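Sequence design from tokenized structure. All designs in this work follow the same two-part layout: the structure record, then the generated sequence. An example of the structure record is given first.
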């Protein structure tokens, strides 16, 4: 691929496996190319029920149409686990407000109260916040979505493992037991958040493994694949999910896989955009070993700007906590002033 000709590949997940169950070599080649060259692709045939994505997006719109006082019953500042509702313009990326409001949610588990001082990431575990009275349909729809996304995330990681000539179950151990996924139900607005300007969400790479994004038909997502200098749009494809890779996969493969930088432009004034990013992530205490690459892939690895014994791989939970603290400094200050110091 020559610079500035980035196209976002579309892969058909329903053709990923052959009738006897192993991955199709064509699918694996497409997946490897997309994950290495672009770091972004779209998938169709990923197994959602008919109408499931549309129904979820419609429910999300209904939530954000509720009066602010209803939405504020889920105020994320109440949650010590970085869950719940973040008001318009209060999330920060690259030091600037984002023109979006959202609900963050993760697996519903009991909070951990006594964790070792060097494992503060356990504070991320706990209960979600949902509009149980105003919109009781939202929770089951969002949790059912997370279930589908978890299967897709697992299947894609298996495909990625095979594409790196690893056993299919290479990542099963860190992901198998209590994966710490996170879903976001997001509403972008145009022309409302002055401090955001045209920033829907500022440019960033995702910190984890695999992100699965459902976006509506509005558009605005743009990406900067490795070796390119111009932002490429990820056009909405009806029935498709957008997939991108996170920094832990990039670091674990010495840059063979691309954690591609992306951003979302705020929609034009008066236009709303809804999306559901889902971050498929391992256990909070997962430690990821560098991936042994076969020589022909190692030769194509771009390397990473950080130290190769990158402490990033040492703990997924610490990475996630760092990301959550950065995005929500108000939550951190309120519940964990001592972490702010660190
Ligand atoms: O909403 C989108 O299209 C992408 C959002 C995103 O990149 C993120 O939340 O990490
Ligand atoms: Fe992202």
């Amino acid at each position: 691929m020559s610079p500035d000709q980035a196209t976002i590949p579309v892969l058909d997940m329903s053709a990923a496996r052959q009738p006897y169950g192993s991955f199709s070599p064509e699918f694996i080649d497409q997946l490897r190319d997309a994950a290495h060259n672009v770091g972004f692709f779209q998938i169709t045939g990923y197994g959602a029920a008919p109408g499931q994505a549309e129904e979820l997006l419609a429910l999300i719109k209904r939530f954000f149409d509720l009066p602010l006082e209803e939405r504020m019953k889920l105020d994320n500042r109440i949650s010590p686990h970085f869950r719940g509702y973040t008001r318009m313009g209060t999330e920060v990326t690259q030091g600037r407000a984002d023109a979006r409001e959202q609900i963050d949610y993760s697996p519903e588990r009991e909070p951990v109260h006594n964790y070792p001082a060097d494992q503060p990431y356990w504070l991320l575990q706990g209960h979600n916040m949902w509009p149980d009275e105003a919109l009781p349909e939202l929770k089951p729809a969002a949790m059912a979505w997370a279930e589908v996304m978890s299967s897709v995330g697992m299947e894609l990681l298996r495909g990625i493992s095979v594409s790196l000539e690893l056993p299919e179950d290479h990542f099963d151990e860190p992901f198998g037991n209590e994966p710490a996924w996170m879903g976001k139900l997001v509403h972008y607005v145009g022309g409302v958040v002055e401090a955001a300007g045209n920033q829907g969400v500022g440019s960033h790479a995702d910190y984890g493994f695999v992100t699965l994004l459902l976006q509506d038909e509005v558009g605005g997502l743009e990406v900067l694949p490795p070796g390119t200098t111009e932002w490429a749009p990820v056009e909405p494809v009806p029935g498709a999910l957008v997939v991108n890779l996170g920094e832990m996969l990039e670091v674990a493969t010495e840059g063979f896989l691309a954690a591609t930088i992306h951003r979302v432009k705020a929609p034009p004034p008066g236009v709303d955009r809804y999306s559901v990013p889902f971050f498929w992530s391992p256990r909070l205490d997962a430690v990821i070993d560098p991936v042994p690459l076969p020589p022909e892939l190692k030769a194509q690895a771009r390397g990473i700007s950080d130290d190769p014994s990158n402490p990033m791989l040492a703990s997924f939970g610490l990475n996630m906590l760092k990301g959550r603290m950065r995005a929500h400094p108000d939550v951190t200050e309120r519940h964990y002033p001592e972490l702010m110091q660190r």
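Residues 10-341 form a domain with the Jelly Rolls fold (CATH 2.60.120.330). We note this feature because it recurs in several other targets discussed in the main text.
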